[in-house]
Amino acid sequence: MKMRLLVLALVASVTVLSLSNTAIFGEGEKTPGAPAGMSPEDMAAAMEACAAAQKVGEPHERLKHFVGEWNTVTKVWMMPGMDPMTSTGTSKVTSVLDGRFIQEELKSSMMGQPYNGIGLQGYNTIHNVYEATWASSVDNHIYTMRGTAQPDKDGKFTVFNFYGEMDEPMMNMIGRMINYRTTILSKDKHRFEIFDLAAGPDYKVIEIEYTRK
């Protein structure tokens, strides 16, 4: 019954669109390339803007550093002043969707339990900002973050600074502001750090050192 209703709804939608097209453009006429009221010049400019938004450029080139297979050392600080819990793991990063994004698959452990994560990162050419997502085997939600890339204060290393939110169910805190910072140290090494801005600008909770295999 549900399938029959779905088919009927689809047929009705196609019929309405067909009748509307005929009423506006005339029987047998093709829909013009530009919307009503848009000049050919405006249409050309719109197409040019669309092409620019789809272009893979220099910001995407910066992401190529991360492509490859890595050994990782993860440190987690539970409380200020405490020694961090340390674990090792591996990471595989691939370039996907024609170089527009990189995808990471991380396998490690955290607090003695297996930890697997998947991330996607790219550059939004409309907003002119880097964007990333992260999902893992210890959470039921997707982290999202945005940021920029620039040289460090000495002009030596490239630093990716991302900002987003993180929930802390143990403390019943929702939406804590987080700084996700990645520093490229050399062609074969980079460091990822998470700072809990709600606790202080330099309050580091997680650090992952990546060394190329």
Considering the chains and any ligands shown, give keywords for the structure.
alpha+beta, globular, 213 residues, Lipocalin, ten-stranded antiparallel barrel
Extended strand count: 10
| Helix-strand sequence | HHHEEEEEEEEEE
Helical segment tally? 3
Write the CATH fold name. Lipocalin
Largest sheet: 10 strands, antiparallel, barrel
Number of domain units: 1
Strand order of the largest sheet: 1-2-3-4-5-6-7-8-9-10
Question: How big is the Rg?
Answer: 24 Å
Q: Uncertain segments of ≥5 residues (pLDDT<50)?
A: 1-32
Characterization of the model:
By secondary structure, this protein is an alpha+beta fold. The protein has one domain: Beta Barrel (Lipocalin), CATH 2.40.128.20. The protein has 3 helices and 10 strands; from the N terminus they run αααββββββββββ. Strands 1-2-3-4-5-6-7-8-9-10 form a 10-stranded antiparallel barrel. A hairpin with a 6-residue loop joins β6 and β7. It is globular, with a radius of gyration of 24 Å. The termini are far apart.
